[in-house]
Design brief:
single chain, about 270 residues, alpha+beta, Phosphothreonine lyase fold, seven-stranded antiparallel sheet, about 15% helix, globular
Amino acid sequence: MDNQYEAYTFADPLFYESPRAWGAREEFAAATRPLPAGWERGDLEIWSVARPVDVVLPDQGWKIHVSSCAADAEEVLEALHAWCLKEHVTFKFLRGLPILQVQNSKYAPRGASGKFCTVYPRDEDELERCLDGLGTLLTGRRGPYILSDARWQEGPLYLRYGGFAERHCRNAAGERVLALAGPDGRLIPDVRGPGFSIPDWARSRGASPRPSRPAAPPAGRTCRTRSNASCTSPTPAVSTSPAPRRGSHRSSSKRRGRTRAWTSGGLTP
């Protein structure tokens, strides 16, 4: 069974449907709010992406993930959204609260569980600036522990080196998996498992992160971290059927009055 298919079974008892079909009723305001001039929005299935039109991201690098409990999600997103717009940094986030609850649930895929927002620094200097700025901004916020990443200090920030662009290769079992390029340009599996790992050649200058123990949740609030269980909602039913094939989506750039096509894997989690 591949648990990544589960979210496609909630909208209809017989047919597969995009998670947006059942998650759109409780979308975050930021998912549809107009962006400032010089920015464009992209829709990647359950994700909403915002990026400056003049920024070209590398194919891979350090990415920052932000986790959140459902009770704090709107406030966390609003704070991150405003900071990234001000600092000219590409980011994406889950479109709505129901999708976040599924992402935090017990049976969410281990490689993606707990990830609420993703920030894409262009280089290591921007990485350090993002960690300093967001670390201060979101200090004290709680969220599930992201097993595939290294935790940054004591807040809800996590780091992982991996692909930004969607590329694929075959792993040792012959399965088609997401990939990143080694120093020789050869594609290798971009491992997203239940433990943090990093290629030796990809260690960040002066910021080689080490996992830290998660802080305890505040009194009166249930927030399971290591297990990645839902913070506020029961676990939904599990399906063993495959999901539909993902296609392309479209985004609009209001400033330029044009529509931009985004592939479903334009920016990886």
